[in-house]
């Protein structure tokens, strides 16, 4: 049986932007990153709408990944309605990469170009597909991952919560084991900090608050051209809870 051993999350405006349109949610067993977009603070409204929806709990019904997908659809509807009410918020949207730590697996709901990674055995594995123009070109073999990193249109995303009345949500579940470290992050981190540096920090920084600070520092050292958000979650195997809790009093 798995449980969350430790987690830490933080967000930084970076060096180029005036405001932080990223938001995160970290309240075991649910973790999420949202990267908002839209003028006149609309991006902030969009990403915070998702986090506010997460605070009210996952919708009932189905498996964790189905519940995460339902929540993303609800958030899409909320953001889309808010945008329709206010001209300044027209077209606003946000990414969402959300995780739920269950008894033997971690489930994800995902829309946009924020990412979930698994760090295990000193290797970093990207678990989500970027819903971005360059991400799709990489999957179709038209660009290499290296070319995508420097592509002028790398920030164009093809799916988000909010811009359309209906959204398609990716959802999946991955088996987890003792010692796994999951990272959820916005593109202000994964777009600037090379995988080797993320691996180095994850491998050498056991204290998650320090690892999180180092990841954000590296993104800023690489220019900090965007808002930077990282959520780190370490999993451990725990004992099954006892089926019957009984207290005996000696007489
Ligand atoms: Ca961003």
Question: Describe it for me?
Answer:
- Helices cover 31% and strands 28% of the residues.
- The chain is an alpha+beta fold.
- The chain has a single domain (2-250), classed as Phosphatase 2c, domain 1 (4-Layer Sandwich), CATH 3.60.40.
- The strands form two sheets. Strands 2, 3, 4, 5, 6 and 9 form a six-stranded antiparallel beta sheet that branches. A five-stranded antiparallel beta sheet has the order 1-11-10-7-8.
- A hairpin with a 3-residue loop joins strand 5 (96-101) and strand 6.
- It starts with a strand and ends in a 14-residue tail after the last strand.
- Calcium ion binds at residues 35, 186-188, 226-227.
- Calcium ion binds next to helix 5.
Please outline what is shown here.
With 251 residues, this protein is α+β, with helices and mostly antiparallel strands. It is 31% helix and 28% strand. Strands 2, 3, 4, 5, 6 and 9 form a 6-stranded antiparallel beta sheet that branches.
